[in-house]
Amino acid sequence: MARDRRQSGDGKLGCILWSLLLVVGGMIGWKAIPVKIASSELYDYMVEQAKFAQRSKPDALKERIYKKAREVNLPLDKRDIRVERRGDRILMGASFTVPLEFPGYVYYWDFDLEVDRPIFIF
Question: Is it the case that residue 5 has pLDDT exceeding 60?
């Protein structure tokens, strides 16, 4: 059986490209995963506050949400927090943008957290 000697199987370019792709993916994950976890924590906190909102005033809820955002290191201003009661429902919202800095590029990740829950009266 004749062998073609021109093909040696030394394709280094594919290995370099896959390694580069792995490094870029790791860098994106390193920056994005903590931000996503923090935003999920804030959303869960907002849902928890909405469950027991019948005893709290909207301004007090805003202050609690703002403190939680500071605790998890999210860039949230007080003016970007919305808390409103409509009958037996509570509506909460928070909008903010987190800049993710990469070498040579900044990605602005927008978050718009919304909670609409009934107020349970005991």
Answer: no
